[in-house]
Amino acid sequence: MRIEKDSLGTLAVPNSALWGIHTERALLNFPISGIQLGTHRHLVRALACVKKAAALTNSRLGLIPADIGQAIASACDTVASGGVDHAFPIDVVQGGAGTSTNMNANEVIANLALELLGHARGSYEVVDPIGHVNKCQSTNDVYPTAVRLALVFAVEELLDRLGLLSASFAERGQAFADIPKVGRTQLQDAVPMTLGQEFTAFSVTLDEDHRRLGEAAGLLKECSLGATAIGTGITADPLYVKRVIDTLSDVTGVRLVRARDFIEATWDTGAFMTFSGTLKRTAIKLSKICSDLRLLSSGPQTGLAEIRLPPRQAGSSIMPGKVNPVIPEVINQIAFFVAGADLTVTMAADNGQLQLNAFEPAIAHALLQSVSWLTNGCDVLRELCVTGVEANEALLRSRARASTGQATALLPFVGYTVAAGLAHRALVSGRSVLEIAVNEGLLLPAEAEALMGPTSRMFSGEPACQ
After folding, report:
1. Residue 316 annotated to the active site
2. Catalytic residue among 81, 316, 398, 460
């Protein structure tokens, strides 16, 4: 053990630990969720990027020695690479507006820099976690900036996976383009469509959310680094304040924008709320799609049974042969958590007081977990379900031919009253609407056959007859 000192006194820290006394206190204070900060890989990377940008800026301005600045920058590269995620053990749920997280980063980076310079861990008279690593900074500008940057990193992966999932639905839409079926509203038979149209619509709606997520992520690129405690820039060199955000842009490759008003930006969480709401929108759309997949595959003998989902595991410990739609079900559950996380973000945003929101750790965890789960969920849904969906083509064609929904397609040709009569007689007799229409001289047999073809206007949204 080594003994470290802070303003509250002394505490023993394991010699093997890259962290120091402030992190050790956080470990004692916040045994809450059991989820370690290091599990949020993008946040750890973002913290390292912020600290590197600060060190480079401070070094170039002569605010810290050049050799210390370079050692800190190199240590930040190690942290950003993911090699020391284990050194971020504090709980993601913590008091202090992220101070424990900021200090954890300061201490780890300081100790790595010390080793690079040939000194033992804890030799803070050489490289000080606060005096050097945290120079010209406060938790109140470092932490929000890092959270925003972490979400920008994370959403890049989500957008990639969401795009692949959309493409998978589009491919199934093409494969099912010629398969007629009955569309439903309020769970009742409505009008003819194709299975391809149904799956293509899934792709289109995910494409829309891909765009909305990109727009919401753009709001996160406005940051307040340089604002320090409440936005006045107190303790920071004016030249540092002017340069550090541009340096962070260079370090990350993300073009960041300086907030128009640092005091407003220090407490404002509007971008987080917008991003959270967009995540919820995406999650709920995915959940709706998965509920449709479960319903369309229900049965398989006594349900809709229009599609077959890939069987992934036995569905029961007591019912032989039962196979459940486990992949869509897990996506539903991800959506439930994302919706709950959005409420968490809302409550945290609402309860920040005066010049700082103390609850950004809750916001950070809620959003990073949501993005991570949605990213993983998109992969699972695409790889283990959508790509293997099959159509029960014979059943779909049979139902399409028998459906009274055909009467709606005839409405522009025979009028509502006649079409309604055809539908009623079809229900009573068990014959199809088109068969009755032919028998009653309203359609020629060739016209009826053409109406059921895959290129028919019955499936295009245009009037079926002129």
Report:
1. yes
2. 316
